[in-house]
Amino acid sequence: MRTETPVSVQLSDYKPYPFEIEQVNLRFDLDPDATKVRSELKVRRTGGAGDALVLDGEGLTLRSISIDGQALDASCYEQTDKALIIASVPDAFTLVTEVEIAPSQNTALSGLYMSGGRFCTQCESTGFRRITFYPDRPDVMSAFHVWMAADKATYPILLSNGTPGETGELDDGRHYAVWDDPHKKPSYLFALCAGDYDVYRDSFTTMNGDEIALAIHVDKGDAERAAWAMDSLKRSMTWDEQTYGRAYDLGVFNIVAVRDFNFGAMENKGLNVFNSAYVLADEATATDADFEAIESIVAHEYFHNWTGNRITCRDWFQLCLKEGLTVFRDQNFSADMRSRPVQRIKDVIRLRARQFAEDAGPLAHSVRPDHYGSIDNLYTATVYEKGAELIGMLRRMIGEELYRKGMDLYFERHDGQAVTIEDFYKCFEDVTGEDFTQFRLWYAQAGTPEVTVEENWKPETHEIEITLKQKTPATPGQPVKKPVPIPLEMALLDEEGNLAEWTTILEDEDVTLTMEMPDTVTEPPLVSVNRDFTAPIRLNRSLTREQRLAMVRMETDPFNQWDAVQTLVKAEILALSEGSQAEPDDALVTALAGAVEQAVDDPAFAALLTRLPEVGEMFLERQPADAVALNAARKKLQSALAAKLSGFSAETLGKPTPAPFDPGAEQAGIRALRTAMIVLLGVSPDAGAADTLRGLYDNATNMTERLAALRAYTVQKGGKANEALADFEATWKDNPLVMDKWFALQATTGDAETIKTLAAHPAFDLRNPNRVRSVVAAFTMQNLAAFHAPDGSGYQAVEEIILKADKANPALGARLLTAFEQWRILEPQAKAAAEATLKRLQSAGLSSNAADIVARALG
Ligand code: PHE
Ligand code: ZN
């Protein structure tokens, strides 16, 4: 076995495609084992007279090829394993190719494949070349016309992009359908789905008065479980009209849910394809976290229609142009649907856990990189989440009104085009008259800037001097960094509230601000920095514990209040894990419990206050990182909190859960607090906790509480909750999404042995990404003490599975391997074991996607 090392693609090598594809006519004769694809391209030369026509194509069996009706002689073209090259072509011509592909053999889930006996496609970023020969790059935009035929009994519903046209019967029980997409699009937005579905239908009237037919296609029997996704879709459509003035632009909008899918969902024009995990939900089978994820992903894909589809990326280096912007849009949608501060805190938890870790490790890259090894590996927290933060900073710096003006100009100026980050910022330069050159460094420099804050109170003059310094650490390939503009919302606080509030943009390496306080201020005020987490930075402050406790009490910004608690909690976990302190500090636990009880009127916020940072969030705090010690310390603090809150918990759980069930924010908040109490019961020293949890599990009326109770019960029983786990399995064995939860619950609470048992379970399926992730990613990302076990047992448990998954599905294999990105900062034993594992994997033979991750991790 040989591991292929991918060649690097460079942004600076960009050249426009030398031909325009004016029209694409596709004919699909669908058959799982042998699908025929006929492609007719109307081509016109736009580049040099001598340019050859080079079309991407992978794994295609070419059956015929002709230009303007003339079959091409084999000497006129060359077919490699990646391309079809025709050296000499006229300036304008029609190219027809016929190829054959085998969807049933497609385990990579890229291109045309089968899922649950149905056809579906995934073309971003480079799947279309696995369907037919084509310039498979986002800057080639064309109008697509699709004719498709399949066996009518097995595949009664035939879908593609755009609007439906003629349908009819054929011989041998086959039927056909025509779809036309009037909007020019790049090939990565092409989609085709065919099969037998149950359909949940609705309609929407746009602000222009157009009537849109909405339909969500799901597994037989699942239609009612699409109701929340439909509701989310309609709210997204309204929100984009009201917030950005953008309406939907086709007569139909289709969603198809598929079980086997590499990512969350895909924004294909007029035909979004979703991982079924992000479509199907009802109170019995889905948790509030699922409902929330569905709402935001449905919105995300819908918002792509303008930010991604109508205006797309010139090349894949510009991925954040559509992803960062669209994440920013979906985060704001969710904030409008729910509680803005709670949404912000959740977004920051995610950013810190995933993006900060990525930015600090060997896989660090800039939001708009200038090279990549494998494009599939560029769908990262940095491109998505940090990309979203950059738009947030832009909006804060110029204000909502100019932001909206700039967006309007962007939509107007670039509609129908494939553009760059520079084009995007030009629109904002034009509406503000400002220069964003320095700001765009955020797109070019990897690494999380660290801002150090120093304060100096001068009692004689009632002045406070605040010095801010920034420094971005070196990252692979970028040893030296320049200062970036960092917008910081600031405030000065005393016991009464805000003394002052302002925004500082830290543009240079450092700045000193002097604020004069009224004579009545005799004590140094508290300095509140980066309120609402205005900038994606790490703050470095040497405050005393007393100052931090005062901060918890005095903060007027909900994000910073939560963060003040987090900072104290992190310090406590570190102290406990390093043995400098044997037991949790009672004053801290009391303060924490007090903050929770005080927030009871905002139960979602109270629930967040009880959430202790995960082990992984602690890795960046002090190195080398000892996952086992951190986990033990975290648990100690958690059980002390459980003990302190036992009365509050009994009271909270003693009330009935809200009924009838509603997935909206209000009820979800109440359940979040109840669930938080259930989590604490899992580590409670109280002798009756296990029985209480068993009762909560048995009597739960919704999956949120049932799953939380089962998990906490498993934790409380030290993994010996077999009977309850068996009960859950017996109830849900026929529901794959619920079974994913059953697998994940055990993978996150068990050890290496658990992983082996789960992988040997008959329902473990290497071909289903959700199932593989529910075991492997759940274990490697959410059970760090077991994954990073010093004896290497955690690594061994997943090694074989990852290798096998990678053989079938490189995108999946590579994604799973990112769990190793932090190996270098681990304590020596785990570090050595992780390195040995990575080297073994490397020599075992990996896909080029996986090899790219491993090579950079070892780098
Ligand atoms: N473009 C998709 C999204 O952000 C993500 C995706 C990428 C899905 C690649 C599939 C393949 O919504
Ligand atoms: Zn997206």
TrEMBL record:
Domain Peptidase M1 alanyl aminopeptidase Ig-like fold: 447-540
Keyword vocabulary terms for this entry: Aminopeptidase, Hydrolase, Metal-binding, Metalloprotease, Protease, Zinc
Catalyzed chemical reaction(s): Release of an N-terminal amino acid, Xaa-|-Yaa- from a peptide, amide or arylamide. Xaa is preferably Ala, but may be most amino acids including Pro (slow action). When a terminal hydrophobic residue is followed by a prolyl residue, the two may be released as an intact Xaa-Pro dipeptide
InterPro entries tied to this protein: Aminopeptidase_N-like_N (IPR045357), Aminopeptidase_N-like_N_sf (IPR042097), PepN_Ig-like_sf (IPR038438), Peptidase_M1 (IPR001930), Peptidase_M1_dom (IPR014782), Peptidase_M1_pepN (IPR012779), Peptidase_M1_pepN_C (IPR024601), Peptidase_M1_pepN_C_sf (IPR037144)
Necessary cofactors: Zn(2+)
EC numbers, comma separated: 3.4.11.2
GO terms assigned for molecular function: alanyl aminopeptidase activity; metallopeptidase activity; zinc ion binding
Residue ranges of domain Peptidase M1 membrane alanine aminopeptidase in the record: 228-439
Domain (Aminopeptidase N-like N-terminal) ranges: 26-189
Function: Aminopeptidase N is involved in the degradation of intracellular peptides generated by protein breakdown during normal growth as well as in response to nutrient starvation.
PANTHER family registered for this protein in UniProt: PUROMYCIN-SENSITIVE AMINOPEPTIDASE
Protein name as catalogued: Aminopeptidase N
Species for this entry: Hyphomonas jannaschiana VP2
